[in-house]
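Structural prep section.
Before we set up the soaks we want a predicted structure of the protein with pyridoxal-5'-phosphate in place, mainly to decide which crystallisation condition to try first. Input record follows.
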Amino acid sequence: MELHVSLEGRKNLSREIYRQVRSAIVDGRLRPGDPLPPTREMARRLGVARMTVTIAYDRLAGEGFILSRVGSGTFVNEHVANTRTTSREPRASGVLRPRPFWNSIRATNLFAERVPFDFRTGVPDATLFPYDAWRKLLARELRAEPVPSNLYGHPAGHRELRDAIARHIGVSRAVQCSGDDVTITNGTQQALDVIGRVLVGPGDRVAVEDPGYPPPRRIFESHGACIVGVRVDEEGLVVEELPDNVRLVYLSPSHQFPLGVSMSLPRRIALLEWADRNNAAIVEDDYDREFRFSGRPIEPLQVLDTSGRVIYVGTFSKTLLPAMRLGFVVAPQSIRDAIHAAKFITDWHSAMPMQAALARFINDGGFARHVRKMSAVYRVRHEKIAAALSRDFADILELLPSTVGLHLTAIARNVGPNGMGAVLERAASAGIALHELSQFSINRGPRDGLVIGYGAIATARLDEGLDRLRECFL
Ligand SMILES: Cc1ncc(COP(=O)(O)O)c(C=O)c1O
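Run finished without errors. Recording the tokens verbatim:
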């Protein structure tokens, strides 16, 4: 990397070059062994006489910061780490302040820490991902040929991936769309952001499930929306409790997060009728439908919608890896161009080589095979946890029925005087990570309970993890 040296408005040029190179070495921007440009090249770049640079380099060499090797060039001295005398001056923290909303959100890496018994929800088993197949798929897309996917592409995404997704969700979920209706995004998260840009303005009311998945409400709030939490019961979102003047409703009907219920057909119909009366948009988040262990899948709202007001959102974070950041939006035609435009001004498009590789993975049958393999793995974990909860935790937890996805939820019957917080503290000391149900509440009183994920924990560690968890309730 070229070191930036600025001589603008400076007088003693040799001293400036010396000072700036020295401080780059001292504060670690240049590391031991890093090459410096030859004096002739540095002089040409800076528009100074070669002698000016030579004087600076001689002084740096004299003080032991750099050394020249005949025939190979000038380098930062390997021993410079020991010669550091001063450290870089701390920069002023700055006078700028974010808008108040941004103080309410922390950017964190929730999964940075490895935990012996990881029951956190929202992640698949990354150890069982087909890495060899994907290395080959990606290598194929990263050749030096001038293939279109190596240049800027269309904001809607890679053509073949859009078609492959349309076929996949058409077959497996009966979603009615063609590749033209699909826009590829960086996960559900960006899908919701793009939808928010297109449909939500300051002061608009947006309804979300309560309890519910936190990112959507944050995203819509960031666009200026007023968030209304709406109760969820055993049939899904309680449509009668939706207030008027709601511009958009976000929900996860096929496997409500976090309670796990599937929205009943009468409720889905009632929601569509309500949306027609109120001229509202519906965002259907279908995030983990691929993993179904029994029962019939429910029909997506997108299929039942006759007015073109449902926007269907999907992700590959559960079926493949969240780190890939690949998701998609199926938008009604009336907002399709605006969705493309919003994606365009946000980041132009998602990474094309990854999209092209995924298109091939789906079209070659690799994706379906991987989902089948993972379904079998998750089914075992789901059954083991459900059995243990009904058997060993029956006096303290009530398991909510759920036959889909990567987590189970249980409501606390009796957790002792110090509540679920104390249980979770004991769990953390026992090497167990998991989510408390109350952290997903909005304005309804928090409900005590646990959300137990089984994507990240190996099947072989389940029994011990559950035994330890049981002890945390004593
Ligand atoms: C309800 C819900 N939707 C979507 C996602 C996936 O989000 P993304 O595609 O941004 O990784 C998750 C992940 O935990 C989720 O719980």
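Observations: The chain has a mean pLDDT of 92.
Flagged for discussion at group meeting.
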